[in-house]
């Protein structure tokens, strides 16, 4: 293995089944492409069928050994999440890798089908529910992995249990930071429960740093956000790396044999914004086990999904 971890370091993925949410573009697409090229059966979990078809066609054209399938899923609708999980279980006997990748960043105030704040609902609750529905097959698939995609934005994040759904004083960025902190707290508590159950499956996390993707394409409003949104076409290429580079932390967390329980990977460059993937640290709030357990209990109540561990 080289000092700088790249796609060439991905082990053979033949006979592995992978499900990636938000796989039609950005980090999800690049991860799906790389895993298919290394032999995996990659299920693209996407909301938009036509975009998913286009992505699958591109991956199939570039792949030499793996295959792709499409699973329609809308993480902003828990009924859609449950339906998609049932469809997956009906067609697959194993799930070796679940990558909870789909996400939103600093969007204008919106609500999910069940009335949750959109970023918390999609980034956290939708993936909490999906993983819960699929946990039986993950447990049966030996050393399976659940990779959840967070962000350096988790660091300023706080879980405000008194206003978790942003029913008042909505802030696009604070809502995003909260959802990304929730991703790490979920990973931590999921790993605690997997370990307690003696499971071979592990929960890990990754973040892409500053990557050139469609994330954050909506202007949430306000003078600062409007100025930054207008400057993105100019500043973006200077401040970000390619989506393929941004996908490397996800791919390392998903496939490297050295990855341990609860590990977190991100770019190794300045500020974790660019560079090859390395193991990185979490904020103190992300390592708060009491908050992780409370968030788990609240998430179970909100989604109605109970884990079989």
CATH architecture tag: 3-Layer(aba) Sandwich
| Spans of at least 5 consecutive residues with low confidence | 223-238
Distance between the termini: 35 Å
How many discrete structural domains?
1
Annotation, overall tally of beta strands = 8
The H/E string reads EHEHEHEHEHEHHHEEH
The number of helices is 9
Q: List the strand order in the largest sheet.
A: 3-2-1-4-5-6-7-8
What is Rg?
18 Å
Major sheet size, sense and barrel closure = 8 strands, mixed
What structural class do helix, strand and pairing data support?
A: alpha/beta
Q: Could you name the CATH class?
A: Alpha Beta
- Which descriptor suits the 3D outline? globular
Q: What is the residue-mean pLDDT, rounded to a whole number?
A: 93
As a percent range, the share of strand residues is 5-15%
CATH topology tier name? Rossmann fold
Question: Brief description of this entry?
Answer:
The chain is α/β, with parallel strands linked by helices.
Would you mind describing this structure in some detail?
The structure is a single chain. The protein is α/β, with parallel strands linked by helices and 309 residues long. The chain has a single domain, classed as 3-Layer(aba) Sandwich (Rossmann fold), CATH 3.40.50.720. It is 43% helix and 12% strand. The chain has nine helices and eight strands. It has helices at residues 26-37, 49-62, 78-91, 118-140, 172-196, 223-239, 243-246, 248-255, 289-303, and strands at residues 17-21, 41-46, 67-72, 97-100, 145-149, 202-206, 264-267, 277-279. An eight-stranded mixed sheet has the order 3-2-1-4-5-6-7-8, with helices on both faces. Helix 4 links the parallel strand 4 and strand 5. Helix 4 (118-140) crosses helix 9 (289-303).
